Description:
There is one protein chain. By secondary structure, this protein is α+β, with helices and mostly antiparallel strands. The protein has helices at residues 3-10, 52-57, 59-63, 127-132, 138-141, 187-194, 198-207, 287-296, 303-313, 348-363; strands at 37-40, 43-47, 73-77, 80-88, 94-99, 108-113, 146-151, 156-163, 180-183, 209-212, 220-227, 232-238, 241-248, 258-259, 336-337, 340-341, 373-382, 387-392, 401-404. A hairpin with a 2-residue loop joins strand 15 (336-337) and strand 16 (340-341). The protein starts with a helix and ends in a 12-residue tail after the last strand.
Amino acid sequence: MSKILDELQDRGYITQVLDNATITELKKFEGSSQSITKHDDYLYEITMPVDYELGFSKVDELYDRPVEHGACTSVRFGNCAGRNYDWKYDDCVSFVLRTPHTDELYASIGIACNVSGFSREPSTLVKEFVESGKWDEEYMMLPFNTKDGINEKGVHVSLNVVPAHDIEKFTTGTNPNAPQTICSFMLSRWILDHYDTAAAAVSAMQNDLNIWAPKNAMGYETHYLISDANESYIVEFWNNEVKVIKVYGENTDIDRPYMTNFYIYGTEVDESGNIVIESTTPSGAGIERYNYITAHAAEITNSKAILSLLGEHLKYTNTYREETVPTWNSEFAGFEWEGRIYTNRDSQEDFQPILDTAYELFKTSFERGGEWWQTVHTSVYDFDAKELHIISQEQGIENVKSFSFNDIANTKLLVN
């Protein structure tokens, strides 16, 4: 009997165990959600329960790890929300993760991954290990490494990192008297599990949750794009205060429903809609990506257009391509290189040496073991069609994988 089945039975998630079955062998049992379905070399599908007792007990191990840089793009256009999850290239896989409905928690579908350098160094869930069919507790932790997702009520969430070391204080507790204290990196999971509208999630973040950020993330924290079919909000933490910016729906604060890796709160735009650099914090990244979205917003009308925007025009390896114009200088904001720390205020002349070096290193990156950042996944959630579309590892729009979430409320763990 496999350890995963033994552990799931001990925790009360299943009542009958199939003898002599490993994780990969379970795929032969129709309806068995403990199978791991392979969709490509770096994208798999699995259903796991959400165990908050386990998650809270492992919170320091999960999240108190160095975050070396900030990337990612999140957007909302029309009936779709999407994102690029950008991270260092490695051999870790991503999972289309389904979580079941319980008396306390909503069912959801999303993308989870345990990339090296974030949750465990190195991560266990690399391609070779996953395909071996062996068990590791990291599978049970996947729900707490959800990067984006949507629940059965149609609430979508995605997170990006921002340079909290640029502001006065890190987030140590937004509401000490709130009934629930939670780590900021766990918020995606909590939102998907508990709220039936975007507004309800935002209200809870303001009033019912005491949110803190890991100390060891090298000064990077998170901001969130939270959406449902009618509204979208960006939520940020600024000097232990929850800042809410409504970006889609009626009575918006700003009509730019997207974010990259600088704080949206307090920023200004010029007459052409581009971000005024001086209104951002110095280590804010993704400014060129943000401006690109602004320039092309009128063209982004459906899920295919969002996939093209994110999966082609904003895929992260464009940082290292000489043909990218304008150059993505702000991706190097906060970097220390050759005795200086770059900021997004530096001139093109200042950035050119580090850009030239990046261009040359990228040409031989595979020979050196993949020392670069990439878009680990592009995901687009269609609220009307109830479909999730994914591009894995920058494979291009022609290699989109699609998943229905029309019936996620009936997600099951295991057929008895």
